[in-house]
């Protein structure tokens, strides 16, 4: 991320952007189109179905749970410190300043306003990255969310039925480390978890093997948009999609009507398959988390210079 130099005699609000590189209209439009095409290659049919009001039990989560709109993911941003020539379309977007000639850039005021978020994100990302990955949960959080209850969270049949699902939870130890998954456990299941997780101690238990900790990288990128380049958002969105698919394939639900075949974590072979796929996602998450940490560090440094 470039470090622009203040211009002599410029007002404080303009100085950080004065030496910023400016992308020509053709260049930034090409990058914006490539970004949109990348997202559409991942979920194009889903976006079309969504526009027609159809729901999807797997992909909806990336928009409903994370309170995002598809446009937030498909719209391209260069990130702080890069200006766009002839970019009037960015006028009115949160965080942007657009000059009379149409040059658009993320404002220093927006960067300053987001310092608390940058600091909190960096703290959590560093804490997660600093711990060894654990691969013994086998995705049982979804099972714990329907343990000993009559109603399920999704309008889908349970592969093993209610009694069979409960039996799996009772045979396998619950080792969830992510509070935002644990908080949806049924009351009987919560008492079976190895750790009594709380919001206050959430950061103390996060670890990089957790699928939800990896999916949350996408959430952090959403919140930090438009300060970060959309290429990082796309990386984390793609990773979150992979993690969500494994999350639900290992769940107790029958998703065959949507083309997802189960990871049967109730069997030894299924648990081994889950760990292999979870480990691969964690490896990708490690690289994405490192990129996010670097981006936050750079942005905080730039805000200090302003």
Note the total helix count: 13
Fraction of helical residues: 40-55%
Report the count of strand segments. 4
State the separation between the terminal residues, measured CA to CA. 15 Å
SS-derived structural category: mainly alpha
Side by side, the strands of the main sheet go 1-2
Bin the strand percentage. Answer: under 5%
Residue runs with pLDDT of under 50 for 5 or more positions: 1-18
Helix-strand string: EHHHEEEHHHHHHHHHH
Q: What's the Cα radius of gyration?
A: 22 Å
Q: What number is the mean pLDDT?
A: 93
Shape estimate: globular
Q: Quick one: biggest sheet?
A: 2 strands, parallel
Layout of helices and strands:
Layout: E1 22-23, H1 25-51, H2 61-64, H3 70-74, E2 83-84, E3 96-98, E4 104-106, H4 108-113, H5 115-129, H6 141-144, H7 161-171, H8 179-182, H9 187-190, H10 202-205, H11 211-224, H12 230-249, H13 268-305
Parallel strand pairs: 1-2
Antiparallel strand pairs: 3-4
Quick structural summary:
By secondary structure, this protein is mostly helical.
Question: What this model shows, in words?
Answer:
- It is built from 13 helices and 4 strands.
- The radius of gyration is 22 Å and the shape is globular.
- Strands 1-2 form a two-stranded parallel ribbon.
- It has 306 residues and is mainly alpha-helical.
- Helix content is 51%, strand content 3%.
- The N terminus is likely disordered.
- Helix 11 runs antiparallel to helix 12 and helix 12 packs antiparallel against helix 13.
Summary tags:
306 residues; mainly alpha; two-stranded parallel ribbon; 13 helices; 51% helix; 3% strand; disordered N terminus
């Amino acid at each position: 991320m470039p470090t622009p130099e203040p211009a002599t005699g410029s007002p404080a609000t303009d100085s950080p952007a004065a030496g910023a590189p400016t992308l020509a209209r053709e260049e930034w439009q090409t990058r914006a189109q490539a970004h949109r095409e990348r997202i559409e290659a991942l979920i194009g049919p889903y976006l079309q179905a969504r526009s027609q009001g159809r729901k999807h039990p797997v992909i909806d989560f990336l928009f409903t749970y994370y309170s995002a709109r598809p446009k937030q993911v498909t719209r391209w941003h260069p990130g702080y410190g890069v200006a766009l020539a002839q970019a009037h379309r960015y006028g009115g977007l949160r965080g942007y300043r657009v000059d009379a000639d149409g040059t658009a850039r993320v404002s220093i005021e927006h960067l300053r306003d987001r310092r608390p978020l940058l600091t909190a994100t960096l703290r959590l990302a560093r804490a997660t990255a600093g711990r060894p990955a654990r691969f013994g949960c086998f995705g049982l959080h979804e099972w714990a969310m329907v343990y000993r209850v009559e109603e399920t969270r999704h309008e889908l049949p349970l592969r093993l039925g209610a009694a069979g699902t409960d039996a799996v939870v009772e045979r396998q130890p619950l080792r969830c480390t992510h509070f935002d998954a644990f908080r949806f456990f049924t009351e009987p299941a919560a008492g079976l978890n190895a750790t009594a997780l709380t919001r206050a101690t959430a950061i103390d238990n996060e670890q990089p093997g957790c699928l939800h900790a990896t999916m949350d990288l996408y959430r952090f990128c959403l919140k930090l948009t438009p300060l970060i380049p959309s290429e990082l958002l796309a990386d984390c969105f793609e990773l979150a999609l992979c993690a969500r698919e494994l999350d639900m394939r290992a769940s107790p639900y029958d998703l065959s009507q949507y083309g997802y075949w189960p990871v049967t974590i109730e069997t030894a072979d299924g648990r081994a398959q889950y760990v292999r796929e979870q480990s691969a996602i964690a490896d990708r998450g490690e690289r994405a988390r490192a990129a996010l940490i670097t981006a936050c560090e750079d942005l905080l440094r730039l805000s200090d210079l302003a």
